[in-house]
Input
Amino acid sequence: LAFRGGYDEDVGTPRPKRTRDVEHATTMADVDAREGAEDATDRRRRALRRAEAMKLKRYQHDGHRRRIPGTGAPFPLRAKTEALGVECPGLGLYFASLPLYVAVLVLLGLLATYNVVNNYRADNFSHTYQLRDMDEGKHTCQRDYAVANFVLRGTLGNFCDDVETSDPFYCPATCTARPQSTPCVEQEDEQGDPCHASPPCGGDRQTCCCDMELDRTKTKTPNNAQYWIMYASLCVYCAWLVLLFHVEKRKAARYRASLVSPVDYTVLVQTRSKRKRQPNNRNLYEFFSHYGPVANATLVLQLGKLLEKAKRLHELEIQHQEAASAIRERSACWRYQRHGIEKLARRILKMKERLDREEAVPLLCKGMAFVSFDQEYHANNCIWDHRITFWESILVHLGRMEKPGAKYEGQPLEVTQAPDPSDFRWENSDVTKASLLRRRLLSFGVVGLIIAGGSVGQFYLESWGTDIRLEINEGFREGSGYDDSMPLYGLSFVSGLVVVIVNMVATWAAIRLTPYERWLTKTAEESWLAVKLSLAYLLNAAIMPMLAANRRPESIYASGGLAELAVFVQVLNAFMPDLYSIVQPDTRLYQELRWRWISTQEKMNELFEPDKFKLSVHYASTVKTLGLAYLYAPILPIGYYIGVIGLCFTYCVDRYVALRLTRMPWRLEDQIGKYTRTSLWLLAPLQFILAHFVYRFKDQSGWPLIFWLGIATWAATGALYLGGAFGVARDRGLEDSGTHGLKYDHATHDLVLTWEALVKEKTAAGGLDGLTDFERIVVSHNDLYTPPLPATLPQQLTKSVIAHYQPNKVVYPQNETLLPGQRPETGGPHSRPVPVGDHSEVIEEL
Output
């Protein structure tokens, strides 16, 4: 069947572009048939070789910065981020931003050094308390249980100045004996020790005891400079965010200019119209020619359900083939297997009948199109004409102004830079907004339920820790000698481990639910997955433990309390997920147990196919490490040092995982970084809010002024950012992507490298072992935004889709007449072709 394919999701490279003259393109299945995969060992060997070919490779480029097939080689582990950004902009931006995350934690840690030193100097945790008996006599009593460790002495609790958060069992305290009708002589020891006669009250002991109260005469007050250090940290943090915006904006533009692709010439046009109509590309050419010569314009057909059914049919056929092969090789349960094969055959037949009925349904489109201009300059004209700022968008939503730009058939347009052809999800182009909202709310709800289940466990563990802490004290008072605090440390470790496990379960669920949300592009899918996971991680690892501890504020700085838990949470969350990503115990075990029982090459390929490097998960993990250090910093300033070590470890591990263990990620844009920066921007006021209400800073002298000053500083920075100040807004309509006037037909000229030529070349060089999956297919630049059409689609339907997406052979000339509402600087004389430089050598090479 003739079709023009999109990008191969397996290898992230252009899928073979079939024409009427080429009935069949070589695939991995054909190679396996030629080479004769006879047993499971051979199939496993070929699957492993295919998996190796899927990993990120460094390619050479031609005279106009286009990838040359057959030149792929693994990246060295110390490869520059610029080289990574050329092959995958999203990956390059991630590794370029990680050192900046480390830098800001180093700066914040240096500022917090003053707080750490002052906390250790306070040294106000007391190993004794004063007993005041009924005769107004005072006695000094010794505490034999562990009062403070290295972590607690570095917190603000070491000052023991706050009534709510200072535990009298750890701070200087006075214990007043309760009046008794009879003397409590039976509790005195041989020396008549009054401390044993009147131990602190608690639990079942309500008589012959004393009431413990904080001794306010021995408390110390923190220096107000410590609170001003927090404000200085907020200012540094906001300034760092601006720097991060600038760096990622500049690098994203540089990566975009490093390669010439259809993205540079194409815009994605959307309207709010819900009316479905017959496709008519002619009107598109006429409308958008007012911005410049149009090379190609196509309305997006509503093919989502058809593509889903065809994909499901293909999966059923693979299952049928695997079952049929298995029954031939191992027939111990042949009757049960034959019943399963017959059931699969019936399902395949029913699915084919459904697809055949779709041939009679006319193809429709609804409010979405791809328009490719002959030069990048004219695509920028179109984007600039419909450009709208953040504040203008608010006025448009409020009905106070009309959306700028010319209207198409009376409808305002939303014009953006088109996503990469491999980035667009054609199967999601016909989902209604109501269905999208329902799906996404359900997905967020499931992740929220997982976090809620984890929070129940955290509340229970916190209550258990409080009971253990009281039992330790009561055991000492009863003379049991139980003065070991190891159970509390163990409980804090278990609590931190629960946080990590809940985060991993939430990650697993979110990744599998994200395709169900039906995002239009993989970039949007990954971006919102990063946001969802970032919120889930911080909610589970920071907010929930704080809320659990807030029920008993005196336990924040106690042994086994929130401050100690924060250390375990930070350490475990910083190192355990990275170690798991390297070892991958579940995946390796499943592969080892399963591969001997697989009968087809496709299933073997699926088993050993490496996971994609999930940029969204790694971005969220980075936000989690930085966020935990930043949110816990008011009570645990040494958390910044833990964060620095954790991010350095993450950088090294992620480099190895991305370049050696996982396959090439999607060619994503910089949108993930944009959403991540928004999450980081929200952390700044959250730290002050938690310090004010959860850590009980609100009663400290000098803090209210700093609190409101910090909130005002953050709000002002945010308003300037949203308004496009500081130059942080990236305007794709004003960027030069490096085409330098090169025209669309020259930049997207096909580079066809056939299988037969590669076989001859590789055979002469010594065999086929060096052949990559990228070289096993007919390689061509995908010069059109066309849906990948599975071979399971009906033939007539396939031909209709091909006819609709057939490229225009002649460039549609510009119309210099301005449209109603069109900005003068985007049309008229500006729609004329711009002078082209001397590209004769490049064109001749092509």
Remarks:
- The chain has a mean pLDDT of 79.
- The longest strand covers residues 365-373.
- Residues 574 and 646 are 5 Å apart (CA to CA).
